[in-house]
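User: My collaborator sent over this chain with a note saying "see what the structure looks like." That's all I know about it. Can you take a look?
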Amino acid sequence: MRGNVASMRRREAIAGYLFIAPWLIGFVCWTAGPMLVSLGLSFTDWNLLSPAHWIGASNYVGVVTSHVTLQSLWDTAYYTFTSVPLGLCVALGAAILLNQPLRGTALYRLIVYLPVVTSGVATAILWAWLFAPQLGMIDFLLQQVGLPAIPWLTSTTWSKPAFVLMSIWGVGGPAIIFLAGLKGIPRELIEAALVDGASVWARFTNVVIPQLGPVILLNVITGIIGASQVFTQAFIVTQGGPADSTLFYVLNLYNNAFVYFKMGYASALAWVLLVFVMLLTLLVLYLSRERVYYAGL
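Assistant: Without extra context I'll predict from the sequence alone. Here is the result:
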């Protein structure tokens, strides 16, 4: 009897490994393998044309001493710490509106989420047209209300705020997650607050926000990870200009790898970004440990 049970468990284990084998092979070949290779390359000098040679930690020293790289890190930090809070506020507001019992709600949800699945290149070209000086739709609307036109993409002052505004286009993803969180709030809590005479703002701050704590944390972490890797918009619209004001970190990484062919230095940049995002995520988790309420835990 024990032999039959052991044989059955063995067959189940083999079947399980066979089912996950395609994913495991893909992970090893296309994720874990390239990561290990890039880690090794980060300690070498390699230009794709000649053999790589070991230079130790020189690439990492170059990362922390390069003015261009530090500028790209500042541009990315500015974008991340402005676009993520703004995007979360807009997404939460959209989710609250989509949670209302109105006719055509399904259509509204589709409209809000549609930009998320739109091509990033197409979106970048669209926003480049909207921000075009004088002839762009945004400057046209500003002039209609008596405000001066703004040189969005040609000014070092306005270029990064322009990209922050672009980021609002993709709030459909976190909005849907917020909507799911709103649907999961027990109706009894809202009704109890109503019975106690709580105002709309009191219900929002004392019932809705605490209940959405885990959802907010998820959107903050995924937002930080996504914003830290912003690339397509800058690559298509400004190529890092003007005066490197939109030279985001991943665009700088791309330039070093595929424009200057400094693959070792680009690999070091990639690993620095990985460590930076990991530490930032751990910091967010640490700061939220006493502020996020997990029902039932």
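A starting point for your reply to your collaborator: DSSP finds 14 helices and two strands in the chain.
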